[in-house]
């Protein structure tokens, strides 16, 4: 066997490692701060250990520990970050897609907590000489958190765009941002964001829990969507990071998401719309059921609802 | 229901004996010689998808993710070429719109597909909800009065028949999410799928099929018949592309199927997924491609004949679910569960005791090549439905390996056991099949051998023997019988030898009082693979081991088999065995061995060369491709064609392995893997990507059998906990070598395969499931016979 590299450079590979190291750093920083600010609600979880084989099958998790409407109503975009990754996964698996959201949603992201593998992999990659040099943590952190402000769902068009602030911080990553033509903007809560990274919106397979569909936010064919700007939108598409998100509804107006990069799990995120939350909460608290299920809920949930 | 199988069998025995001379002219399932239970079972076998249409439409491309291009496989324009390309058997009841006699005149009416019975109704619901599946009108056979469940069955609608796709065993369903306007805009009309299947950049992304926001007009599902329906050796079609119903039989096993190529038909041929899923030769399928175990092990669909005479294994130690009419109050639903809304329709899971009689409904037989499906015949049938995608979403996929998870702490790193109780509880399709397994079993055990004498239109086997003696030499058949008794019957007979251990006086064609042959022509005993010597990858299949996906379908006895001490690869947990195969109707089953590798290569030679997947596996002693390999033999299901292939295959089988034309499938083009995402390099001002190419000429099994996740994990462990790695590998030097590889990877991070090559010995010892790449090796039995004796043996086996 041999290898035929194409257009790669050791600097480029170093950047992969920088990325991984950055994730570890950001996870630590975020979690330490939030640990004290947002206590986690009382939710039951199936027992689990470190190896994959020790984790209880999601079907059994849901059968034994169904999430109640009361528990879901207590979850917030902040306190859900309190849980470790397996707990987040068990919460996600007990949700359904609910209705495909509409309108602007505030976003937040959080990296996996309690997964040793990423840290271990980073340790390996961290052996590359000189990788620590040139770390531009501040800029890369901005990429991950300060840049992304949320999502705007265009439910009727089955399209989504991301709310981006301070695109100029990406200037170093793009040859000529001045080429940018008209950019969509949206104002919400007294703040204006630019809209980039359009994606297709549909019901599809969850890459973690197969038992029911999730709402998929797919950037692979971002170039087919009206308002596409090659710079920077291509970055998320099939010639870029190949990003694919999936979300399920925690409660009205509040969705928990998972972002994938090239089919590999990257991070968790939440999107939240306060108006939708207020409008739908009373009914949800009473029934425990979403206003609609736009996606396939699978037979286990169907049977449970009967 | 207790005696449905055996009762059905006795009915069949009195009727099917005349099948050779009294061929029913319609569909096999309508044959009045079948009992009602057998007819019902036949229809389920032929038509039921049990919900796997969603698997092929959504799960396969999005979750696994493997692209299946149904238009490439089933478009009606290429109906005449399907058999050659994919081994598909065309449904005689379907037609190409616009063809003479076809009720539909335009391909746009059927979205480019065949027009089949039931489509007038089905086509009304493309893009709409409310379709009533034809399975809802399926007539169940009367329940056995002794059935503990009193005939309570899941709704027959959940069998999900749909209508024919035009290919036997592939069924179609209207997609209610389909948007006709969007579709027409994408494809420039409705008569083709060209926009939906278009190629896109970059090359490794390959196809517009990955755009899951687009809903196709149909779901396509598969029944068991997709691999098992075959041309009747007794009554083959005059034109293989245009068979008639009477040419088809449901349990023979399609010897020409290329079903894994169908599954990956939307992938580029240089993609790793194409190689993983299309790692086969014609007539075989790797049934652990989806429940992947990193062991490329394609095998033939077994011919299901004379199953009632197949040996039972009453002493097999096992745990399984048994039908019950109640559960004790407060019983744990993991061990006893009653279906809600039913009248005492319960199941009890328990350990079989030595004092237990074998379940007469579901005798334990050694079904798979390594005898892995070993808790009961009916459970073995049910497992096949799951393995072809039924209940994949609610029950199966969360237990499978995810190719992209390399962290052993994350779900999906490896398999976990499929849970029968959970699936029964959560998936109506599972219950719909399970509640009708006795009928399916009744159909399957009614299938009889296909005798060459009958295929040739002769009155008796004696007449055949006379013909064979004329061809192979006077007295050949009689002499061959003695050679068989002395050299083969020890494994290839289910009858007992005399007190001295001799089979000399055994009549291998003996019949019982009903005229049914009593010999299964295999003892079905599992033997260590080294004692047989054939390619061992299939024997090392690991999905029935403890902790793996099919754990609940394997017996404790099976998993307790000792490892094979004479092979270098891991063979614990029950791996490393083959059971003897039956030689019933061997004349119609060539090429030979579990992987069809002993005998001439066969190929379909389709007119559309982009669908010609054959390439030569013939290599020299150094495993380099032969410049002028033997040509492949074109598919020929005629009696003469099968017999010619049988003779050539017997000739190779009886040739010493080292003198056979050696076969090792090599990559015929580079495999391209893009590892990780594209990264923007702000210094070089360009995106960079790690692109790995595995070069043409690499043994395909070397790729498919590589435990790459274990390599990554051990590389990590060598840094984080070297002592743990030493303990794991039980070899300090090996652990040090792994540790050294870390630095080598770091030093040449863009060329990882070069590092693997350098450490080939370490890789083959610790990180491959099977290091056997020689496909037509082994089974040296009989190779020492004289030429005359070999001819005689060939003549006799032809009579079996």
The largest β sheet of chain B comes out as:
3 strands, antiparallel
Structural class call of chain A reads: alpha+beta
What structural class is derived from the secondary structure elements of chain B? alpha+beta
- Overall number of strands of chain A: 9
Report the β-strand fraction of chain B as a percent range.
5-15%
- Strand sequence of the main sheet of chain A, in spatial order? 1-2-3-5-6-7-8-9
Rg of chain A (C-alpha, Å): 20 Å
- First-last Cα distance of chain B: 33 Å
What spatial form of chain A do the alpha-carbon principal axes imply?
A: globular
Query: What count of helical segments of chain B does DSSP give?
Result: 28
Descriptive overview:
Chain A has 306 residues and is α+β, with helices and mostly antiparallel strands. Chain A has helices at residues 10-37, 58-64, 69-74, 85-93, 116-125, 137-146, 230-233, 274-287, 298-305; strands spanning 103-110, 148-154, 159-164, 185-188, 191-204, 214-218, 243-251, 254-261, 264-272. Chain A contains nine helices and nine strands. Chain A has an eight-stranded antiparallel barrel with strand order 1-2-3-5-6-7-8-9. In chain A, strand 4 and strand 5 (191-204) form a beta hairpin. Among the domains of chain B are: 37-146 and 154-270, no CATH class; 302-449 and 528-582, no CATH class; 671-766, no CATH class. Chain B is 29% helix and 8% strand. Chain B contains 28 helices and 14 strands. In chain B, a hairpin with a 5-residue loop joins strand 1 (163-164) and strand 2 (170-174). At the A-B interface, helix 1, helix 2, helix 5, strand 5 and helix 9 of A face helix 3, helix 12, helix 13, strand 13 and strand 14 of B.
